[in-house]
Design a protein that fits this description.
Elements (H helix, E strand, L loop, with lengths): L2 H24 L8 H15 L9 H12 L5 H17 L3 H16 L2 E4 L10 E4 L1 H7 L10 E6 L3 H10 L3 E9 L2 E8 L11
Parallel strand pairs: 1-2
Antiparallel strand pairs: 3-5, 4-5
Helix pairs in contact: 1-2, 1-4, 2-3, 3-4
Length: 201
């Protein structure tokens, strides 16, 4: 996964979680929560996240966020919304290949499913998603948009959880095409986007 994509994912996660933490904490308050108090809540949350490995690429950004939140004239909530808008603009430019990498990354983080390319001597390991390099090359066009369903092979006791998670992400549908002993063959379909572009199914 590219450095830019990792940075986008980490930033999106931190900003989203920070804003959720803020709104969950102030939702029971009576009346308006002043900016100073909002800054304090956000600074406390972000400071508690800065040592996590997932945010290792955001050291400079986190330092800036904390400085804004500690400044008497700063408005960290407003800054986080600005960052979120920029992330949405970046997301709009992601290719289908980028989205596939993001999906596999999420599957690893949420369910501990790893992924790798198959080789002639590949020994199927449990909870690993296998894809064929030639299938991937044929499955995307020159702009890295998916033009056909992608075959995935997996050996797992958690098939229902895997399929449910993929469906819950909203960008793909997944179906079982073949089961051989403990090994399952799956087909990953890209959903139609808002503009009705290629659904790869």
């Amino acid at each position: 996964m590219s450095k830019n994509l990792k940075h986008y994912q980490a930033t999106t996660q931190l900003v989203t979680h920070a804003l959720f933490a803020l709104y969950f904490q102030i939702q029971g308050n009576k009346g308006y929560t002043p900016i100073k108090r909002r800054n304090e809540i956000l600074v406390k949350f972000i400071k508690g996240q800065q040592k996590k490995a997932v945010y290792s690429t955001l050291k400079k950004e986190i330092k800036t966020m904390l400085a804004i939140g500690r400044n008497p004239k700063g408005n960290l909530e407003e800054r986080l919304h600005d960052i979120n808008r920029l992330n949405l603009e970046y997301k709009a430019k992601l290719t289908h290949a980028d989205e596939l990498y993001i999906l596999f990354n999420h599957l690893f983080e949420a369910l501990n499913f790893t992924s790798q390319l198959t080789k002639p001597d590949t020994e199927i390991e449990e909870d690993t998603l296998y894809m064929n390099q030639s299938e991937i090359e044929e499955g995307f066009d020159e702009r890295n948009n998916q033009i056909k369903p992608l075959s995935v092979t997996v050996k797992t006791q958690r098939l229902e959880a895997l399929m449910a998670y993929v469906e819950s992400q909203g960008s793909y549908t997944i179906e079982v095409t073949h089961t051989d002993s403990e090994v399952v063959s799956l087909l990953l379909h890209k959903k139609v986007d808002a503009e009705g572009q290629n659904k790869a199914s």
